[in-house]
Amino acid sequence: METPFNDLDTYREQFLSALNTQNRDGALALIDSALQAGFPPKLIILRVISAALDTIGERQAHQEITLSEVFLMARISDAALERLLQRMREKPETRGTVIVASATGDYHSLGRKILCSFLRVGGFRVVDLGASVASATIVDRAVSENAAVICVSALLLHTAQNITEVRELIDTRNLKDQIKLVVGGAVFNMDPQLFHSVGADATARNAPAAVAVVRSMFKRDAFVRQSPFSRTGAIRYHRVFRLATGEISP
């Protein structure tokens, strides 16, 4: 067990250091130490895990770390989040439900799994449908899970084009006012306007930017009422989103 610190800023710095070295055991020990020091789980999620991932997101936006490194850091953060949720007497209400899937014919999962971790830490309930998911299955699950956002990833152009089927199903079933479609993946980063062609409502360059986009799809006031996270966290994610999409410079 780590020696308890007196402030969460120190825990954040140490947790970030553990992520940078991909030290899963050290990261989880820090979470246990923060709990032992008497800090509430909700505050640890906001001030330690979420804040650390903000920094990771900015480093990815600046291309200082690789996708595989972000994946490992996100998995460690996900494990830390689960540990904290287990210690909470009452599970926090989520910001909303998000369906995540790889497009039909697309078997690349790394980026999708990173997104799931970032969304969970961001306070969303995530339903990960996996790789190469049929468009009808994606929309059906969105309806059955009462999800307001669908996130679909694609690596290649021919699989990205399959996302048009998701758009068509949303429109045909008169769901466009209830369900928003967000896309991402290498092919969309190479052509930032491609998301229009497949009928998506938005795209994002990386997981932190996607979290900011998903946040914008929900009513902001509902976020604050339902989530253990503050407006400060939303502002940080918005800055990461603007950096990732090139709207502002570092």
What does this molecule look like?
The protein starts with 7 loop residues before the first helix and ends in a 6-residue tail after the last helix. The chain is globular. It has a 5-stranded parallel sheet, sandwiched between helices. The chain has 2 domains: 8-87, Methyltransferase, Methionine Synthase (B12-binding Domains), Chain A, domain 1 (Orthogonal Bundle); 97-228, Cobalamin-binding domain (Rossmann fold). Mean pLDDT is 84; it is low at 220-250. It has 13 helices and 5 strands. It has 250 residues and is an alpha/beta fold.
List the helices and strands and how they pair.
Layout: H1 8-20, H2 24-36, H3 41-61, H4 67-87, E1 97-102, H5 110-121, E2 125-128, H6 135-144, E3 149-153, H7 157-160, H8 163-172, E4 180-184, H9 186-190, H10 194-197, E5 202-204, H11 207-217, H12 220-226, H13 231-244
Parallel strand pairs: 1-2, 1-3, 3-4, 4-5
Helix pairs in contact: 1-2, 1-3, 2-4, 3-4, 3-13, 4-5, 5-11, 6-8, 11-13
